[in-house]
Design brief:
By secondary structure, the chain is α/β, with parallel strands linked by helices. Helix content is about 35%, strand content about 15%. It has an 8-stranded mixed β-sheet with strand order 1-2-4-3-5-6-7-8, with helices on both faces. Helix 6 packs across helix 7.
């Protein structure tokens, strides 16, 4: 038994796509969705520039008429694919809707650059933002990027900064062990399935995947404590293999006295809101994130 996928979304996505094997990583990179200039500009309300963050390319999106608080956004792609433009065909709306500045780095990918390279790159982007006047950002990410966002937030806590305003984790890839019930629910028939997940984690961690010595800065579910983390927003679909690890992470935050908001979207498959952004369920999910960001950042947005 497994949860059904929302009918509107299922009608618009390929649920029979091939599983990601190591031999298919190059093709996955070729097929990764990249936001166009028109999508980034949001009808002329957003400007975007390229920058160099200590040798790492970053894309910086700013509102045309004002400037506000910042978000460090880490793209998805299973740890093996994606670029600094990935996911921004949707998430550029944060800039136009809220007046925030969004920074998206081109972190290195596995398997050529296994752990700790991706998380170190993302933390380096946070440090670069702090040194260059972006203030205390929200760290956000989707899928693999959601896991990296959680890792960067743990690193900032453990290393004594830079300060993080909050973390926004969308269908985050948190647990390399792949042993939650939901991680077994979709061997096929979904946009990200068990074999694909194991391929991504193995590319990042090699033979260490699932073993006793995996760092929480690679797989945040391994963190011994999640106390002392900033306000957190987590969301995931009910038909996503990351459902249970996301729910578990939220529960751990609550037990540690943390401020966490969790949404489990009924019928959402992995990445549903990126794949079918105009579906009713996707619009609800996007609006809820914007509302949370607005509440979190209200003092800065009003200043």
């Amino acid at each position: 038994m497994r949860p059904p996928i929302d009918e509107e979304i299922a009608a618009s996505v390929d649920l029979a796509r091939p599983r990601l094997e190591r031999s298919g990583i190059a093709m996955a990179r070729e097929n990764a969705r990249s936001a166009t200039d028109a999508e980034l500009s949001r009808g002329g309300t957003v400007t975007f520039t390229e920058a160099d963050a200590d040798g790492m390319p970053v894309l910086v999106l700013r509102p045309v008429d004002t400037t506000g608080p910042s978000v460090l956004y880490l793209h998805g792609g299973g740890m093996v694919a994606g670029t600094r433009r990935t996911d921004l065909h949707v998430l550029a709306e944060w800039v136009s809707a809220l007046g925030i500045v969004l920074v998206s780095p081109e972190y290195r990918l596995a398997p050529e650059h296994p752990h700790p390279a991706p998380s170190r790159d993302c933390f380096r982007a946070l440090e670069w933002m702090t040194r260059n006047g972006f203030g205390s950002p929200v760290v956000a990410g989707t899928s693999a990027g959601g896991g990296l966002a959680a890792a960067v937030t743990l690193m900032a806590r453990d290393f004594g900064g830079p300060p993080v305003r909050g973390q926004l984790l969308m269908c985050p890839m948190l647990d390399d062990r792949c042993e939650t019930p939901s991680s077994h629910e979709f061997p096929d028939g979904n946009t990200w399935v068990r074999t694909s997940n194991i391929t991504g984690w193995t590319a990042l961690l090699g033979a260490a995947r699932g073993g006793p010595d995996v760092s929480p800065y690679a797989a945040p579910a391994r963190a011994r404590s999640v106390a002392g983390l900033p306000p957190t927003y987590l969301d995931v679909g009910s038909a996503d293999l990351f459902r249970d690890e996301t729910v578990d992470y939220a529960a751990r935050l609550w037990r540690a006295g943390g401020d966490a908001e969790l949404h489990v979207w009924p019928g959402g498959c992995h990445g549903f809101d990126q794949l079918v952004p105009e579906a009713v369920l996707s619009r609800r999910a996007r609006a809820a994130r914007i509302e949370w960001l607005s509440r979190l950042l209200r003092p800065e947005l009003l200043s």
